[in-house]
Amino acid sequence: MRCTTMETDVLNDKAVAEAETESASKCIEAPRSLQELGIRTGLVQNLALKILYLQGELLLVNLAEHMRLSLGIVSDVFDHLRKEQLCEVKGMIGGVHRVTTTALGNARAHELLGLSHYAGPVPVSLDDYTRQVRAQSIRGLSFHTSDLEKAFGHLVLQPAILTQLGTSVFSGRSTLLYGPSGVGKTVVAETIAGMYRDYVWIPYALEVGNQIITIFDSNLHDATPERLENHSDKRWVRCRRPRIFTGGELKLDMLDLQFNPVGKYHVAPLQLKANNGILVIDDFGRQQTRPEDLLNRWLVPLEHDIDFLNLAGGGRFICPFDVFAVFVTNLDPDRFADEAFLRRIHSKTKLNYATSLEFHEIFRRVCAEAELTYDAAVVDELVAFLEKSGRPLRPCDPGEIVQQVRWAAGYEGKPPCLDSPSVLQACRNYIFSA
Question: What number is the average pLDDT over the span 344-351?
Answer without folding.
Answer: 90
